[in-house]
Amino acid sequence: MAHLISRSGIVVVQPVTPSDTQRSGLLLAAVAAVLFSAKAILAKLLYRHGIDAVTVIALRMLFALPVFAAVAAFETRRARVRGDRLTSRERWLIVLLGLLGYYLSSFLDFWGLEYINASLERLILFLNPTLVLLIGVVFLRQHVGTRQWAAMAVSYAGIVLVFWENLRVGGNHVVLGSALVFGAALSYALYLLLSGELVRRVGSLRLVAYAMCVSTVACLVQFFLVHPPVRLVQPMPVYGLSLLNALACTVVPVYLTMFAVARIGAGPTSQTAMIGPVSLVFLGWWLLDERVTALQLAGTAVVLSGIGLLSRMPVPKSAAGR
Questions:
Q1: Residue 156: partners with Cβ closer than 8 Å, 6 or more residues away
Q2: CA-to-CA distance for 285 and 186, rounded, in angstroms?
Q3: Which of 277, 298, 263, 221 is nearest to 61 (CA)?
Q4: Which residues of 2-31 are buried (b: 16+ CB within 10 A; e: fewer)?
């Protein structure tokens, strides 16, 4: 409900309309996508210090863990007061979400980048919205309207324009690398869909905190299997960049994404996320002095047009009013 004070001093209560819910959900999803994508810029800066992807991920999750652990403890205490206990099925589903969303997906993505270039990797990751829609239609019997398919097609056209100039399908083990990145996209699509079903029951703050704690444990176990503990000792600039990566590019967008899923559903959230990698073009120009071409600007305009189509769609009944 929205509370407004009129000129006479009377408090007027206005209901939040579906369009308000939709606009806020799309905005949250877009901001989350840009922040998530910014981690690629920070990763490039971190790699200049000679650390590998496993260490980058471990430091990112290690610095984010105190926030997620604190929220998990607070939400657990609140749930106990309400007498709201998780079922055994919900506990296992949260563990699965933690492993799928921010452990397996990240690991497969970074692994695939060892075999293919970043442009091909980004194009494959843009299959994520399609996977979300198809899995939802086939297995969850969700309805997808014509306008949503059209919005996705328009966005894909813009993505191809943005990255076409830099696309090089070469190198060794291209099929293996592409399969790994496709696995990352599939893993994250499953995370979005499963979280969309669970967030209504558990709540956004609680679900994200639990799932991210699981992801952190998995990332740290992987680190200690690959590297000795002394590899966590790094120069201060690495810690500073990792802290920024943890808070601005992990904690904040993780919650914004879940809030968006709660408002507009997994499908529109994943489609709006298309703006994230496109934003890398401008972040790279701003922070890394990379070139921006007219074709990339045209592609960005097309992507925004596709997201504009989404903004005129009605809010799914399962998402509105949460």
A1: 126, 306
A2: 30
A3: 221
A4: eeeeeeeeeeeeeeeebeebbeebbebbbb
- At residue 81, what is the residue type? V
CA angle 84, 66, 24 (to 5 degrees): 65
Positive or negative, the Cα torsion across 192, 198, 201, 207?
Answer: negative
- Distance (Å, rounded) from C-alpha 99 to C-alpha 96? 5
Distances from the Cα of 137 to the Cα of 123, 199, 295, angstroms: 23, 19, 34
Q: Are 207 and 94 in contact (CB under 8 A)?
A: yes
DSSP states along 234-251: --HHHHHHHHHHHIIIII
Report helix, strand and coil shares of the chain as percent, to nearest 5: 80, 0, 20
Print pLDDT tens along the chain (322 aa).
444 444 444 444 444 455 677 788 888 988 988 888 787 778 778 888 888 878 888 999 999 999 999 999 999 999 888 888 888 888 999 999 999 887 888 888 777 766 765 656 666 676 677 777 777 776 666 666 676 667 667 766 766 666 665 555 555 677 787 788 888 888 988 888 888 778 878 888 888 899 999 999 999 999 999 999 999 999 999 999 999 999 998 899 988 988 888 888 777 777 776 676 667 666 666 666 666 667 766 766 766 666 566 555 554 444 443 3
Chain-centre distance of CA 145, in angstroms?
23
| 133 within 8 A of 267, measured Cβ to Cβ | yes
Question: Which structure tokens are listed for 12?
Answer: 């007027």
Could you state, in order of their start, the residue ranges of all structural domains in the chain?
2-311
